[in-house]
Amino acid sequence: MIDPYQAQRASVRRGIAQFQERLQAAGHDFREPPPEPTSCCGRGCNGCVWESYDAALMFWYEDAGALLAG
């Protein structure tokens, strides 16, 4: 079975890596991004673990972006 979200997750991982490289190049010691969920059942639950991950990741991006903007 092909995971339709695999390409999207790969793109998100690349974006995270790029942000981490920019933070490191700017000399910032910044916390790690939230870990990807491993417990999704794939049934589209209301309150899916991916929803929480997305919210936490957006918070991480906002904080990292603010730090880079100085």
Provide the fold topology:
Blueprint: H1 6-25, H2 49-69
Description of the structure:
The longest helix has 21 residues, at 49-69. With 70 residues, this protein is mainly α. It has helices spanning 6-25, 49-69. It has one domain.
Can you describe this structure in just a few lines?
Helix content is 59%, strand content 0%. The protein has 70 residues and is an all-alpha fold. The mean pLDDT is 92.
Unreliable runs: none
Distance N to C terminus: 45 Å
Roughly what is the average pLDDT, rounded to an integer?
Answer: 92
Q: Output the radius of gyration.
A: 14 Å
**What portion of the residues fall into strands of 2 or more residues?**
under 5%
Main sheet summary: none
Number of DSSP E strands: 0
State the share of residues found in helices, binned by percent.
Answer: 55-70%
Number of helices: 2
The shape is elongated
SSE-based structural type: mainly alpha
Described by its quaternary structure, the protein is: single chain
Number of domains: 1
- One letter per element, helices H and strands E, the order comes to HH
